[in-house]
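Troubleshooting entry. Yesterday's outputs looked truncated, so today I'm pasting the complete records for two proteins to confirm everything comes through intact. If either block looks cut off, that's the bug. Protein one:
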Amino acid sequence: MFKGQKNEPEKARRPRAEQPADKKPKTKKTEGKKKEPYDLKYLTGLLMAKMAFGGAKRLRSNADKVNRLNVFPVPDGDTGDNMRMTIESGIAAIENLDTDDLAEVMRVFSHGMLLGARGNSGVILSQFFAGIAKGFEGAVKADPYTLGRALQLGVKQAYASVMTPTEGTILTVAREAVEYAVDAITPQTTIRSFFADLVGEMHESLERTPEALAVLKEAGVVDSGGAGLLYIMEGFNKVLNGEDDQDDDGKTADVPKPKAPAASSFGPDSRMEYGYCTELLIQLMRDKTDVESFDVDALREFLSGVGNSIVAFKTDSIVKIHVHTFTPEVVLAHCREFGEFITVKIENMSVQHTGLDDGEEPPAPVERKKYGVVAVTNGPGIRDMFIEMGTDFVIEGGQTNNPSTNDFIEAFKKVNAGTIFVFPNNGNIFMAAQQAANFYADARVIVIPSKDIGTGYVALTSADLSGDDPDAIAEEMKAAMQNVTSGYVSPAVRDADMDGVRINKGDTIGIIGKKIVLSDPDKGCAAYRLAVKLLEEPDKFMLTVFRGSGTTEEEQDVLRRCLEENCPSAEVYFVDGGQDIYPYIFVAE
C-alpha cells in the first residue's frame, strides 16, 4: 500500500485471462505455438530480456487497436504507437546485451525506454520501468517478493512522474494490478503465477476505467494507456507460458541503436589528456542537507577547484551538474554528502577526441549563447514561422508524430546556450520535453507549457530575450499564454455523442480546449462557426488562422470573406501552416 491509500477488503481471486485488451473476457484460449513454460521461483536477466521482447511483440501487434481507443472521435490517436516505440527503444538497448544479471538487464532496458519515450503514455511507461529497475538494483535474480516490491516502486515512480495524477488511466491499471498480485503472494507463488495474477487483475482494472473517468464512459472506450500496458504484460505472460503470439506481423520499429564508444582508440599506452565529462542528476536528501536553502554557489565553487566547463543548478529538490574533470571520483564523493544519484554519466573525453573516423573533423566550436529556443512544430509553414521568430532548432513533430526524450536531448546539444527555452506546442509532448530537461546537464532547460501551436506562437512572440533573469522571461511568456484561446477543426472518424453534441462519422467537429463545441457536415461551415465562437469570447478581437495541408486556398478565401462580412471588427490573419490532421487551427487573442 502507498501512503494515503485506504485499506480495502480482501479481493476474491480473479480468473486468469489472456484475451485482447479491447474486448471482454473470452473463454476460448488464445491459440499459439507452445514452448516449454517457465514456472520458476526466480526471475533472471535472460528471462526478463525474453519477456521484454515478448511484451514489445504483443504491443506491436495491437498498437493500432490501442490507437483507436481515442476519447475524441478524431484521427489523432497515437497512444499505441508512442508506447510501442518507447518499449522498442528499450529492446534496442538490450538486443546485444550478454548477461544474466537481472539488475543490469533492467538498468539498460529502462534507460533505453527513458531516452526513447514518446508522448505522455510513453513517458509514464518509461518511468514505470525505471522504478522497477530501481527495485532490482543489486539483484542478480528476483523471487516473487522482490519482484512485487520492484513493481510497487514502478507504480510509485509512475505516479510521481505526473504533476496531477488522474485515476482511470494507465496509472490506476498498473497500481490495482500490482496491489492485487502482491497481496496474492504466498510461499508457493512462482514468477509465472505472479504474472498470471497480475494480468488477470489488469484486465479487470482496465474494464473499470470508464467508471473512474467520466470522459471514457461518455466516449465508450477504455483507457488507451492502460490497454497498452496490458498488451505488454500479456506478452510477458505468453513468454512465461511458452506461447508465441501469432498476431505479430513481423514489423519492427526503426529504432536507432546507440553508437558504441571507440574504445580501441584508447589503449594501454595512451595519455589521459582531456579528463572525464561528468554529468550527474542528484536528488537532495533531507537527512543530509537543508533542501530548501541548498547553496548551489558553494557547489559551483567546489567544482571550479576540480574541473572546468561547469554547469550546476537546482530545480526544486533536484541538482544537475556538468563538469570536465580528471577526478570524477572526487566529484561523486562530494555530491553524496548532500544527496543520492538519480543518474550518473562519466565519459572519457580522450576517447571522444580520438574516436573520430578517418578524415572526420571534429565539429567547429560555436560561441555559447545566453539563451536558446527549441520548438516542436508540424507543417512547413508553421516551422518557417517559428524560425523567423527566433527559434534556434525546430523538431518536426506533433500529433501522431511525437518526438522522443532523446530527440529533445539531441536538439539541446545543437543549441549551444546557457539557458534553453522549449516549446512542446502539444499537451502530449510536454512530459517528454520535461523528462529530457531533467536529464540534460549541459544547460538550464526551461519547458514552457505550450499545449498547442497557438499558445506556443503567442508565448514566443511575447518573449523578450534581452533580460538577465530567465525565470522572469519564462513567467512573462506563461502570462501571455493565459490570454489565448485555441481551437481546431477535425474530421470525425466515428459516430459519437460528446459534450452535448451529436457527431456523425464524416462530419467536421470544432474543438476548443478539451471540449467539442460543434459538429457540421460541411468543413467550411464548421470552421466559420468555430471562428465566430472564439471571437465571441470576452476581449477576443484578433484571430490567427493556420491553414492545414488538406485545405485549399479557395476554401480559405471563402472563410476569409465570411469572417470579413460577419465579423467586421475582428482582425483576422491567415497563415499557410501546412499542418496535418487539422484543416484549420485558430488562435484567438
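Protein two, checking that the full record survives here as well:
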Amino acid sequence: MRLFTAIISALILSMASSLMAQHVSVQMPNDHGYVGVPMQFIVVFENIDPDVEPTIPELKGFSIRKLPNKQTSSQTIIRNGKVTSTSTVAVTFLLTPEETGELTIPPLTFRAGGKAFQSQSKTIQVTEPPTGGSLKVTVTGTQKDVYLGQPIDLKLNIFVEQFTDNELGVTLEPRDMFSFIRGDSSLGVFADALANGRVQVFEQRGENDAGKEVTFLVFQASATTWPETIGSVELQPIHILMDYPIALERTRGFGFFGGDTLQISQSQLISATSQMPAIEVLSPPSEGQPLWYSGAVGSFDFRIVADKTYVNVGEPITLTMRVSDLTQGPVNLDYLSAPDISEVEALTQHFRVASEKPAGKVEARTKTFTQTIRPKRHGQLEIPALPFSSFNPKTNSYETAWTMPIPIHVNETATISAEDLDGYTPDNDYAENGKQFTEVEGGILANYSGPSLLVSDRVFSIRSVVVLLSIPPALFLIMCGFRFFVEKQSSPKAKQRSLTKQVKKRVANIQSLPIPEQASELSKSLRLLQHHWDDYEGHKTDIDTLVNRCDESHYGSNPDEALVREVQQFVGALS
C-alpha cells in the first residue's frame, strides 16, 4: 500500500511539473524602432503545440508580415538520474513601423493545448532613421568597340555613405562597411576581385539621397574579360545588396579583461544596380589580311626552333613555335591560334606540312605550338623565314613578325635495285667479256653429279624445330597458371582466410593491452568481420552479439571479464 501511494504521488508531481513547464511567451528585444525598418516579434511555445496557426491582428502604425518557416528545438538534460526534456516552437513576425511616435502593441492572445495564453502590452518609440544609407554602383572602363581577341577592361565603383552613430559618437571603419555587402549580391566579372580582397578604398564628399552633404566610402575593383564571339557584349549587370546599419549598441565583455564591444543592433536592406557599358565586338578587316593570319589581335614576338637539322628525305622535323604577347596589361592566350604555315609557299615548295592544327601550351605571356614538317627532296635546304601576323587596333593595320631561316641538310634515302643483288650480271656483260655457256641435256640438274646430291642442305635441325614449336604452348600454360593463381588469391574464400588470419593475430595479442583498452580493441577486430558478414554465413548473429557486449563493456561501468576468452574461442573456431 505504501509503495502504491509513492507511485501515485510521483505521477501527480510529474504531471504537475509538466503542466507548469507549458507556457507561451513573446520576445521583442528592442524598445526603439525606425520608420520603414522591420522589427522581429517572436512567439515561443514551450512544451506545448499551438491549436491553430498563430496570427497577429492588424496593429495601428505597423505593417505585419509572418515568416514562413518555424524554428523548432529540443533539449534533454540528465541530472542526478533525473531526465528533463524541453521542446520549443518559435514563430517569427516582422513588424514594420509606418509612422513616428509611441506605438503600442496591445496584449495578444494565442491558443495552445486547449488553453488561452495572453502576452503583455509593449510600447515602441519610433523615430526617423538617422540615415537612409545611400548606395550607388557604377561600372566604367572600355566604352568603345573592340576587336575579337582584344581585352575589355572594366572598373567597379561602389559608393557607400559612411555610417556614424551620433548617440555613441562612433564612425564605422571602411573594412566594417565593406563587410555589410551581402554574399548574395550579383558581382559578375568582379566576383573574383571582391572575394579575394583586391579592392581599393578612398573617401569622397557628396550629397546623399536626402540632399545632405556627407562622406562616401568608394570601394573600387578592376576586372578584365575577353569576348568569345563578334557582336554585342552581354555583360551581367552588377547588383549590390547591403545590410546597412541603423543603430549600434555596446555589450559588456566577460572576465577580468573583458571590455565593451560594439555590435549592430538594427540594420536595413538597401540595394543598387549598375548600368553596364554598351560594347560591340568587331572582326578584323579582310582587306590586307595575310593568308596565314590566325586571328591574333595586338603586338607579338614570334620565334621558331627545329629539333634536328640533319635528316633523310621524308623524315619528320618538329618545329617549336613560340608566340609572345608584347601588349601592356593582362593577357589571355587561350583563344590564340598558331599561324597557318601551310599557306607559306616558300615552305610547302620543299616540305610537306602536317594537316593537323596544332594545340598550344600557355605559360605566362607566351604560347608554344609544335608542328611537323617533312622534306620532299635531298640536298642543302632551309626552313624559310616563317610569319606570324596580327591586327594592331592602334594603327588599324596588320603587322607581321618573321623568324630567321634555318639551314637543313637532307640526305638521299638509300634504295636497293636489282643491280645491287649479289651475283646479278646482265647477259650483255657476259657477252662483252667473251664468256660462253654450254647447253647440257637433262635440265638444270644435269649440271650436278656425284654423291654430294645425297647430302641434306637443311639449315634447321629437327631438334631446333621441336624447341621452337614447344615455346608457344609452354608460354600459354604459364599464363594460365598465373591467372589461376591471381583469381584464387582474389576469391572470396581467399579474402576470408586472410581477414580471419588478421583478426586472429590481433585477438591473440589482446591480453598485452591494459584492461580498459581490451574491449575497444576487441570491438574493432570484430567489426572487421561484421563488415564482411556475408563471407561468414551463419555467424552474423554471434558477431553482432559479441560487438554489443564489447561496447557495453567499454562504455559501461562493469567490465565483462569473460569477454576476452569468449572472443578468442569464437575467432579461433573460424576457418
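Both blocks look complete. Sanity check on protein two: Confidence is low (pLDDT under 50) at residues 6-19, 420-424, 428-450, 452-460.
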